[in-house]
Amino acid sequence: MDEDVLAEAAAGARMFGSGPAAALDELVRGLLGRLADGQQSIGELGCAHHGN
User: What percent helix, strand, coil does the chain show, rounded to 5?
Assistant: First the structure.
């Protein structure tokens, strides 16, 4: 994680009045969502490549 991501999570926690654990939970959920999206895109690229 870079500093920008952590700063964004901290700002979000302050905005919603969440504690550190809630902010970390939200951050991890967001990162897992991005990872899943990336894996899906990689899978689609692999299917497209093998289909040619």
Answer: 90, 0, 10
